[in-house]
Amino acid sequence: MKPGVFISFEGIDGAGKSSHIDRLAQALRDAGRELVRTREPGGTPLAEKLRELLLHESMDALTEVLLAFAARRDHLRLVIAPALARGAVVLCDRFTDATFAYQGAGRGFDLGVLSQMERLAQTHIAENPDLMLEPDLTLWFDLPPAVAAARLSAARAPDRFEAQPLAFFGRVAQGYADRAAAAPARFVRIDAAQPREQVGAQVLAAVAARGWIAEAAGG
Ligand code: TYD
Fold first, then answer.
1. Which residues pair with residue 8 across a beta bridge?
2. How confident is the model over 78-115, as pLDDT tens digits?
3. CB-ligand 1 contact for 41 (6 Å cutoff)
4. By the 8 A CB rule, do 8 and 89 touch?
5. Which of 4, 10, 20, 148 allows an S-S link to 84, with CB 3.0 to 4.6 Å?
């Protein structure tokens, strides 16, 4: 059986990940892979309840962090780890980098504590208890916060994060840049300011470069 593959998608609100996740999912299915498309916070009944709270109830940064990691652990145990063990490809809309970017860089929560919580929440799940489960590849949709905000304003009613001022998203974007610089082998930066077709091509190329789909798949 092929080994499982864990891909996460990150970026500030309005970066336009969703349609590209759908397109990549189709390319991977066409390549014959079992596909699990999921999201954070969320992905299990418990984690979806925690998502509702995180996005809509007012709370401090530590409470956000605790809810995000509680949701993540449930999601890892019940969905992501079993899927990877079966050899599936997991496409996850946001993962722990979002906690570093939003709660860490955005809210100013201690990054050292986040690293400790990352280890605590993401180990003792797989067969090797010391293995910290994290994405094999993170596609980071990078675009200027002002451009993302303009795209968002046309969309539906904002949640607690989408309603933040531009300066917040400036910090979140920097938080992603710092995480990418710290893990260059895992991150691929997608220039999300380009036209949709070219963004899609960058996504497919990044996955093809890892050998998970054929070079020409999807065009
Ligand atoms: P998002 O993934 O953008 O979903 P949708 O497209 O439905 O709006 O929304 C999730 C929001 O939660 C987003 O604003 C980022 C935020 N978030 C955190 O603050 N911390 C986290 O750990 C995660 C996973 C998300």
1. 92, 138
2. 999 999 999 999 999 999 999 999 999 999 999 999 99
3. yes
4. no
5. 4
Contacts of 73 (CB under 8 A, 6+ apart): 121, 122, 125
> Domain-by-domain residue ranges, the chain?
5-218
Q: Ligand 1: does its nearest atom lie under 6 Å from the Cβ of 40?
A: yes
14-63: per-residue pLDDT in tens? Answer: 999 999 999 999 999 999 999 999 999 999 999 999 999 999 999 999 99
Pocket of ligand 1 contains residue 93 by CB under 6 Å: yes
- CB of 98 within 6 A of ligand 1: the answer is yes
**Using CA atoms, how far apart are residues 196 and 31, in angstroms rounded to an integer?**
22
Q: How far is the CA of 49 from the centre of ligand 1 (A)?
A: 14
Specify the residue for token string 């970017």: 101
Q: Dig out the tokens for 157 from the structure.
A: 């009613």
Q: Does domain 5-218 have CATH number 2.60.120.560?
A: no
